[in-house]
Amino acid sequence: MENILISVVIPTYNRADLLRSALQSVAASRDVEADRVEVLVIDNNSVDDTRAVVDEIRAAPYPFPLRYVLETRQGLSHARNRGAAEAAGFYLVFMDDDQMIHERYLAHIEPAFTATGADCIGGPVRYYNATGLPEWLPPLLEHVGQFDLGGETRALSEHDDVLRGGNMVIPKALLASLGGFDVRLGRVGTTLLSDEETELQARMRRGGHRIVYVPALVQHHYLDPDRLSRHHWRRHRFDYGRTIFRRRLADGDFTAGRTFLGVPRWLWLQMLTRELRLYGTACLLRREDRFDRQLRLCECLGQMYQARENIRTLERTTARAE
Known about the structure:
By secondary structure, the protein is of the alpha/beta class. It has helices at 16-27, 50-58, 76-86, 105-116, 138-141, 172-178, 196-206, 230-250, 265-279, 287-321, and strands spanning 6-12, 37-43, 66-70, 91-95, 99-101, 120-122, 125-127, 154-155, 167-171, 211-213, 219-221, 259-260, 263-264. The strands form three sheets. It has an eight-stranded mixed sheet with strand order 3-2-1-4-9-6-10-8, with helices on both faces. The radius of gyration is 21 Å and the shape is globular. The N and C termini lie far apart (51 Å).
């Protein structure tokens, strides 16, 4: 494995059928030397046919070394960090199990790093089956599950959107020096927690590292039918609220202060003054705007839930210490 240049890391959790498509898209790669690429599937406790799918595809045979690794610590960040630790390549390509890469994706990686002087690169993520959508959905999909900054290669500043974790390439040594993905963030099982890639790229910027958007690094994303329901987006915003609070903890920006029902009073005040005031005007709004107000409320409730959970954890830890 000494000659490996690129390690493709695919964390997966109960998506055997979609994983098959992801692996087949990598197998269809062109203009890249087979002995310089490896593929790692990091199974994060799947209970479906994930292992069998990997074994079947590997026996086909597969054009690149294909390894199956079981990561028992639940969470996307744990799985990505395990993939990084197991990888033999100089560059780590992170892709999700419900995505497919362009056939020349791998061939573009080394030239892109050389041409841009980047420390981390990534590219567009586009839904390939987003048809027949309800009218209210496209605005929500603009920044969730897809990402496109146009056709020009450019360095990203702190004011730009961030590369998606499912389409990101970074040298293994650099990720190790940064301590990997923060395991307090990112999806865990079926939760919709997020922002692990956002926090990582913030650390990179603070360290003076250059992050570059490369339009040739295209990945195609499967739009899950669950995302066509309003219930999904209420769950999504609730868990995003939890993510916001977890980010505050990760940044060391949390003071509980006085609490009511286990939740900081300043969070109650935020909900009452911002969210409920807006929600109270719902009868005067169009249905789409009323739904937006519901999502705002779900986000605030998610923050309150996470705050209460963290305060309880702190209280239990203090009690054991005493």
